[in-house]
């Protein structure tokens, strides 16, 4: 049979075309299956097979993505893998280049985590930012007593700052009992802090694990308990890529338990280096101070004079002051004498005896004027009184009565002006110019008018 005239492709070209077709047509996908043959060579990449009942798929998770995967990735785990379908050209292997790996069910957990995170953030539960004591005097560690986290923390503290007192508060860090146990421990530690002020910091920590393993640290009530804690709280849960609600609610977060211990206390090496720097600065400052004082001493020595010279100068100053004092005293005495003479002259002009004699003369003159004025004033007032009496007599009703008129009054004392105001038989009183008369009204025509 004659060979085909069509140009043949090389294996490399065919594999390249197949890779391009897979990457363009399929692109990024999520694939769910069971892990098998998980391999972690020294390069840091992770190779594994994803399989189900009827097929399998080779997968590669490169190092730059593998460090963000929190799941431990063990054979037999059921996972969801996001990646792009490709082909490894040198061997012609069809494979999935993985970008992310999640345990099955982790998507729902992440959605619940985001909803609860948004709710607590809106309430201000993540607003804690109190400074932690540095270094703490008494550190309270909430973690499992058998986990690797407490061993890492104690090892770092012993190396960096062995002076810190550490108390382990054993609590479960996984499962349904973990969150209630940690909440109860936080409440107890805050109540006891009033009795022991040296307890000044709490570390909540555990090692890495899957999202399900760390889910106790996403408990809403635990986040609120951390937020309301009077003691400062640091959270260090899982690895660097793991983030929990406890981390957000705490005053500070550390990526790992070891990193938390490093942040809580200073390192001995750092302190020694700092002390050496301070020692050198102190030595330089001491030398500079000694140099300054030496210069000051030289300056004072140059200014220092012989005691005899100083005494002679002071003696001359004393004589000058004595002369000034004597002159001032004489001037003061002379001024006092002049003042005394002036006061004596003023006193003579205003002698009490002269003032008394002058007052007596004024009193006699006033007494004489008073005796002269009294008769005149009495006569004037008498004449005015007589005139007023005559005016009063002229308008007095008694004067009218004296001319023969009378005033009639009834028993009630009311003045009768008309005959119609009386009744037959009524008793009346007539007031005359001199005396009164009792009258009785008789019936008649005049009374009726």
From TrEMBL:
CDD domains associated with the record: ExoVII_LU_OBF
Exonuclease VII large subunit C-terminal domain: residues covered: 128-438
Q: Does the keyword Hydrolase apply?
A: yes
Keyword set, alphabetical order:
Coiled coil, Cytoplasm, Exonuclease, Hydrolase, Nuclease
- Please give the coiled-coil regions recorded for this protein: 268-346
Q: Does the keyword NAD apply?
A: no
Q: What is its main location?
A: cytoplasm
According to UniProt, the reaction catalysed is:
Exonucleolytic cleavage in either 5'- to 3'- or 3'- to 5'-direction to yield nucleoside 5'-phosphates
Where is the OB-fold nucleic acid binding domain positioned along the sequence?
A: 9-101
Q: Cite the InterPro entries for this sequence.
A: Exonuc_VII_L, Exonuc_VII_lsu_C, OB-fold_nuc-bd_dom
The Enzyme Commission number assigned here is 3.1.11.6
Could you tell me which Pfam families the record lists for this protein? Exonuc_VII_L (PF02601), tRNA_anti_2 (PF13742)
Compartment annotation: Cytoplasm
Supply one GO CC term from the record.
Answer: exodeoxyribonuclease VII complex
Molecular function per GO:
exodeoxyribonuclease VII activity; nucleic acid binding
Quaternary structure annotation from Swiss-Prot or TrEMBL? Heterooligomer composed of large and small subunits.
Q: What does this protein do?
A: Bidirectionally degrades single-stranded DNA into large acid-insoluble oligonucleotides, which are then degraded further into small acid-soluble oligonucleotides.
Similarity comment: Belongs to the XseA family.
- NCBIfam families (alphabetical): xseA
**Which PANTHER family has this protein been placed in?**
EXODEOXYRIBONUCLEASE 7 LARGE SUBUNIT
What this protein is called in its record is Exodeoxyribonuclease 7 large subunit
Source species: Halomonas stenophila
Give the organism's phylogenetic lineage: Bacteria, Pseudomonadati, Pseudomonadota, Gammaproteobacteria, Oceanospirillales
């Amino acid at each position: 049979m004659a060979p085909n005239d069509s140009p043949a492709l090389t294996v490399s070209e065919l594999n390249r075309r197949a890779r391009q077709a897979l990457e363009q047509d399929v692109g990024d996908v999520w694939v769910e299956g069971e892990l098998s043959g998980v391999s972690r060579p020294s390069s840091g990449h992770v190779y594994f097979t994803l399989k189900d009942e009827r097929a399998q798929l080779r997968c590669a998770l490169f190092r730059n993505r593998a460090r963000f995967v929190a799941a431990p990735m063990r054979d037999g785990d059921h996972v969801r893998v996001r990646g792009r379908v490709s082909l490894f050209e040198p061997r012609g292997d069809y494979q999935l280049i993985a970008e992310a790996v999640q345990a099955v069910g982790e998507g729902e957990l992440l959605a619940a985590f985001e909803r609860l995170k948004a709710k607590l953030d809106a309430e201000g539960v993540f607003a804690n930012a109190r400074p932690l004591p540095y270094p703490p005097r008494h550190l309270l560690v909430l973690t499992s007593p058998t986990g690797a986290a407490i061993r890492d923390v104690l090892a770092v503290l012993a190396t960096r700052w062995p002076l810190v007192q550490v108390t382990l508060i054993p609590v479960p860090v996984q499962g349904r009992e973990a969150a209630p146990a940690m909440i109860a421990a936080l409440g107890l530690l805050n109540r006891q802090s009033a009795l022991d002020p040296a307890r000044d910091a709490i570390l909540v920590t555990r090692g890495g694990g899957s999202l399900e393993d760390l889910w106790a640290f996403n408990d809403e009530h635990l986040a609120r308990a951390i937020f309301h804690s009077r003691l400062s709280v640091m959270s260090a849960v899982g690895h660097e890529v793991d983030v929990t609600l406890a981390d957000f609610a705490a005053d500070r977060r550390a990526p790992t338990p070891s990193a938390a211990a490093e942040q809580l206390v200073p390192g001995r090496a750092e302190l020694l280096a700092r002390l050496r720097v301070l020692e050198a600065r102190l030595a330089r400052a001491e030398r500079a101070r000694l140099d300054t004082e030496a210069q000051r001493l030289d300056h004072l020595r140059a200014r220092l004079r012989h005691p005899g010279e100083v005494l002679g100068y002071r003696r001359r100053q004393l004589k000058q002051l004595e002369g000034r004092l004597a002159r001032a005293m004489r001037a003061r005495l002379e001024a006092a004498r002049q003042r005394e003479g002036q006061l004596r002259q003023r006193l003579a002009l205003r002698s009490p005896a002269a003032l008394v004699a002058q007052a007596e003369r004024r009193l006699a003159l006033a007494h004489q004027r008073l005796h002269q004025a009294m008769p005149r004033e009495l006569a004037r007032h008498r004449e005015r009184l007589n005139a007023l009496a005559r005016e009063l007599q002229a308008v007095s009703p008694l004067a009218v009565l004296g001319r023969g008129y009378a005033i009639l009054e009834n028993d009630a004392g009311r003045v009768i002006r008309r005959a119609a105001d009386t009744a037959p038989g009524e008793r009346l009183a007539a007031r005359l110019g001199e005396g009164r008369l009792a009258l009785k009204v008789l019936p008649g025509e005049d009374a009726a008018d």
